[in-house]
Amino acid sequence: MAKVFLTTTFSPSMMGRKAKVLMVHEVKEEEFWRSLSGVKNVEGNEFIPAIGHENTADIVRKRMPKEMREQKLFNRVNIEVEHGDWIFAIIPQVRFNSTREFTDEEVKKAEFRFFIIL
Prior knowledge:
The chain has helices at residues 29-40, 54-63, 104-109; strands spanning 3-7, 24-27, 46-50, 86-92, 112-117. It is of the alpha/beta class. The longest helix has 12 residues, at 29-40.
């Protein structure tokens, strides 16, 4: 079946080496969690949390519906999607002049955008 990734970023490099066409849908937060819950619970689908910073994973967990919070979200993995896979990207809207890990306070204050990529 499909891999279902939950992440806080998206990059074209996640598409792998085979040519693909991805559809990107920006959705409201409620639709994001409802859709993720439905897709990750389809028998045979593999849910893969892929949030690479612990503080961001903790903030995302607090935004999740209570019934979904049991899953560990901090997980540094390389994402490479294949045909039929899903990416659920909850992206904090924080920008800096240099690349660095966000502080807890920065993540807590951040606005988030929600994308479903398939």
